[in-house]
Amino acid sequence: MSGPPLDDCFAHDPKRMPAGEALALLRQRVRPVVGEETVPLTEAHGRILAETVISERDVPAFDNVAVDGFAFAHGDLCPERPTRLRLLEGRAAAGHPFPGRLPEGAALRVLTGAPLPAGADTVLMQEDAELAGEAVVIPPGVRRGANRRRAGEDIRRGQAVLQVGQRLRPQDVGIAASLGRARLRVFLPPRVALFSTGDELAEPGAGLPTGATYDANRTILQGLLDALGCRVTDLGILPDRADAVGLALERAAAAHDAVITSGGASRGDEDHVVRAVERQGRLHFWQIAVKPGRPLALGQLGRAVFIGLPGNPVAAVVCFLRFARPVLTMLGGGRWPEPRAFLVPASFVMKKKPGRREYLRARLARGADGRLWAEKILREGSGILTSLAEADGLVELAEDTMSVAHGDLVEFVPFSEFGLVT
Ligand code: AMP
Ligand code: MG
């Protein structure tokens, strides 16, 4: 295979930072900036935990019964023959322990969730038992401890069950409840200022002058930020004017943890965003070797993090998911959410320039072989928003990949890995 063509701007432009390097830097450098609050469990879903939760007790708190049946001491059984055990009067049920102790040679009727009666260590499912008057017949071969749930088999006293920085899913909040916790300490949501930029942009609902385009980015980004648990201030559309852009960014930065723009981030005559950040703050990096993506800017405006996304809607979304989302998660106290890629065969062929990372919009389709294959969405322009709606996720092609052949295994990242669930 031949080397990279000489005119490859990505391979030869030292200003363009490799995507992996940019991600590693962000992962190292970004720190939580938000405060904390204590909330009831019903408000904890989806929030980022700000404490380590250590269990003060065993869960379950006592040995208990896993099925409806009969409890007895395994030592009372004959190993080779069925054993008749005297059935005691009464029973143990969930929330209603048996007050006494099982005498030798006796069994007790028990229901699921009941504390295992003292003197018993084994439970036979009622379907497997034979009732004979005042007795119950236990077949041979029952294992000691069958159908017994041990105290602490789920969680041990002293165990750290939930960690600082994890985003709480319903099952995580459920664990807190199972420990008896009614409230959890969580991070406050990051406050994010959101702008679109461009003289050509019109608000949906308004008329569309000649040469204008409806602002789609702000709607998408608002949804993505909401899903991430950010508190968004929608600051509308900025005109392509240096003074207006500079003033608006400065004001927004003073009252937010992060400022996000889309568009206007190139070096064109009417691209004022990056120049304003350089003037008023610091631009950490600007050009990343990623497609779609150019230009993507990351910097600092006062105490706020600045993220300048590309204007083209598809590029804005891809850059948000891959770069902005982890940054905002970390600002909000969370751990870096590295999206997991699944290896699937490609049902397409393509050539690729080396030196940059590429994200393809792709759909999963079941092949004749029964496997899921990654199908590339055909209309690839980074302004073609419907291509994102048709996709199930992104195929990530590494910098050194130069081609994909039919059947090659490629890294497919489902949108759900970016927190986008249907
Ligand atoms: P820019 O990065 O400002 O040069 O914008 C690149 C392309 O994206 C242009 O065609 C813009 O019209 C388009 N664009 C920028 N912002 C938006 C937006 N908020 N909604 C839809 N298209 C946009
Ligand atoms: Mg523009």
Structure commentary:
- This protein is of the alpha/beta class and 422 residues long.
- Helices cover 19% and strands 30% of the residues.
- Strands 1, 20, 23, 25, 26, 27 and 29 form a 7-stranded mixed sheet that branches.
- A hairpin with a 2-residue loop joins strand 9 and strand 10.
- Helix 4 (217-227) packs parallel to helix 7 and helix 5 crosses helix 6.
- The protein is elongated, with a radius of gyration of 30 Å.
- The two termini are 42 Å apart.
- The structure holds adenosine monophosphate and magnesium ion.
Mean pLDDT: 94
Oligomer: single chain
Which hetero compounds are present in the coordinates? adenosine monophosphate, magnesium ion
Tell how many strands the DSSP assignment holds: 29
- Low-confidence spans: 1-12
Task: Considering the chains and any ligands shown, give keywords for the structure.
8 helices; elongated; binds magnesium ion; six-stranded mixed β-sheet; alpha/beta; 19% helix; binds adenosine monophosphate; disordered N terminus; 422 residues; seven-stranded mixed β-sheet
